[in-house]
Write a structure and sequence with these properties.
The protein is α/β, with parallel strands linked by helices. The chain is 52% helix and 8% strand. The model is unreliable at 1-19 (pLDDT under 50).
Length: 338
């Protein structure tokens, strides 16, 4: 299965940097301990989601930035925490609470390593980044800029939340939150707060008479803030994909594929969706078709050759195949599609 959590940089290719001193004592390995320390000190959290023993970019970030004194100019504003997702048994033994780390990765929708989240002590994210070249000084400068812009965005969203709580007619505020959330960039600050306001549309308009429920579900699913109850509501409201909500439901299901059983279920779902003959985001569905076709074509994976051909053919009907996906489709269909 293709996984999003990849790092292809060979460790041997990482150029060495001379560390100035051991800074490991400045980092918490336990998120909850770090959050408590941040609250007590009146600081924010600098959270590094890392794969310490396998992720080349993570190791490169440490060697070029975290291993150097100038980076710790951020110490007056941040408490540092490294949440590790190692592969070796030796490294795994050093992780104090792996289950909690997995819970946090799911909560914050971590899709690659390293991911750096800047957040308040209460866990509200106001900045997202990862590896950046340029050394510790440049990194510190960027983090400071990200903090200023991110906290302003959080303040604006907090103001909207206050307006919502005071308003007698809450529907206009909810609609505004839906509009903002739908167009919010991935990882942008305030997403969870906006999602909380937008989700009120499901209660205010339970039968979608004003279209507020539809607007709320679209914003939640499109922004990646949809929860299981939101996905179920979207599937019920837009079962025939007239408004495109089913596409986001299927996208969410694709993101949960972890093994052969869930992959087979995903293929079945995608084939059932095809029968609706209604696609809004052709590029998104095409990408899922190519992935599923690849799984079906491989004898070592799902070994469903006829379904592989159906999905590959559908992918070509949805639009021009990107060059990076073309070899897969050509192999399945046995023809040149260029």
């Amino acid at each position: 299965m293709r996984t999003l959590l990849t790092s292809t940089l060979l460790l041997a290719a990482i150029s060495p940097a001379v560390a100035q001193e051991d800074h490991s004592s400045k980092w918490f390995a336990d998120f909850d301990q770090a959050a408590a320390a941040a609250k007590e000190a009146g600081k924010d959290l600098f959270v590094d989601f890392t794969g310490s023993d396998w992720c080349g970019w993570c190791i490169k970030l440490h060697k070029e930035v975290f291993d150097h004194d100038p980076f710790y100019a951020l110490e007056k504003d941040f408490v540092f925490v490294a949440l590790d997702y190692p592969r070796s048994e030796e490294a795994k033994a050093k992780v104090p609470n792996p289950d909690r780390n997995q819970e946090l990765a799911k909560k914050y929708k971590i899709q690659g390593y390293p991911t750096i989240l800047l957040m308040t002590a209460e866990g509200e994210v106001f900045g997202t980044t990862g590896y950046r070249e340029g050394g510790p000084e440049k990194y510190v400068e960027f983090v400071k800029e990200l903090t200023v812009s991110g906290k302003k965005a959080l303040a604006d969203v907090a103001q909207l939340k206050a307006e919502f709580e005071k308003a007698e007619d809450k529907a206009p505020i909810v609609r505004k939150a839906c509009d903002l959330l739908e167009n919010l960039a991935s990882g942008a600050p305030g997403g969870s707060i906006l999602a909380g306001i937008a989700r009120q549309g499901l209660t205010l308009d339970p039968e979608n008479k004003s279209g507020l429920q539809m607007a709320a579900l679209r914003a939640l699913l499109k922004s990646g803030q949809g929860e299981e109850t939101d996905l179920a509501a979207a599937e019920k409201l837009d079962a025939k994909n007239a408004e495109g909500l089913m596409e986001y439901v299927i996208q969410a299901a694709m993101g949960k594929v972890r093994d052969e059983t869930s992959a087979n279920a995903m293929v079945d779902r995608l084939l059932a969706f095809k029968k609706l003959e209604k696609v809004h985001d052709k590029e998104m569905i095409q990408g899922m078709c190519v992935n599923a076709a690849y799984w079906c074509h491989s004898e070592k994976m799902l070994n469903r050759p006829e379904d592989a051909k159906v999905l590959a053919k559908w992918a070509t009907e949805l639009g021009e195949i990107h060059e990076r996906m073309a070899p897969v489709i050509e192999q399945i269909l046995g023809e040149d599609i260029s």
